[in-house]
Specification:
Elements: H1 5-25, H2 29-39, H3 43-56, H4 61-73, H5 77-90, H6 95-107, H7 111-124, H8 131-141, H9 145-157, H10 163-176, H11 186-218
């Protein structure tokens, strides 16, 4: 069946659209190259490769996270913060983006900003992996172990977590300091029960004695 001129006019743009979609699904060569370089600890070269890929996809926050991670490895914390702030502007409601910005602050040892930003990530998604863990870790670093434990427990309730190790260490420390509540043995329970019964019997006997004394004194007229 012969194709009409209109069909032929629509055919080429459609093929170009399909080709563009297919090309978009394939990973960019520079992105893959950057991943390999990063794995080989060639962080400067990895950043260069990812930035070339970013030029084609300027709103790709996953790429920005990669770049910031490499910048942190190079201890270029200000550049990493700027990179992640750019990601926040693109995806302000992404818990993942906020979490990674908080990690930059944590690696820079800016605990106030790290804690505040982890809480921002938690406000967006309170079950985001390891956010509660890092909040607990910051509290532990500041010496507030009780608050830390609360966040560790929340993190392990969300799924697999490194917080188990911190909780085990806390329990061991409490046990070493004698602060854990151990269940009493049978002998202690029996001694306590016996002492309680003896005290109760003595109190009852004293009450009976006082009642008899009062009754006796009331039977005599005043002089």
């Amino acid at each position: 069946m012969a194709r009409s001129p209109a069909d032929r006019r629509l055919g080429l743009p459609l093929l170009l659209l399909v080709a563009a979609v297919v090309a978009g699904c394939e990973p960019a060569p520079q992105l893959e190259r950057g991943d390999v370089l990063f794995d080989n600890t060639e962080y400067v070269a990895a950043i260069t490769a990812w930035q070339e890929s970013l030029a084609e996809r300027p709103r790709d926050t996953k790429l920005l996270i990669r770049i910031a991670t490499a910048q942190v490895r190079l201890r270029k914390f200000d550049e990493a913060e700027a990179t992640m702030r750019r990601a926040v502007e693109i995806e302000p409601e992404s818990a993942k983006v906020r979490h990674n910005l908080a990690l930059v602050y944590l690696r820079r040892k800016d605990l106030d900003k790290a804690l505040a930003t982890f809480h921002e990530a938690r406000d967006i998604q309170d079950t985001y992996p390891e956010t509660n863990y890092y909040i607990g870790l910051i509290h532990e670093m500041r010496g507030d172990e009780e608050t830390a434990v609360k966040y560790y427990v929340q993190d392990v309730n969300n799924g697999p977590s490194r917080a188990w190790e911190r909780l085990d260490r806390y329990k061991e420390k409490q046990r070493a300091l004698g602060l854990t509540r151990e269940p009493p043995d049978r002998r202690s329970v029996l001694l306590f029960s016996g002492a309680f019964l003896a005290l109760a019997a003595a109190a009852y006997g004293l009450r009976c004695y006082l009642d008899r004394r009062n009754k006796t004194s009331l039977s005599y007229p005043r002089t």
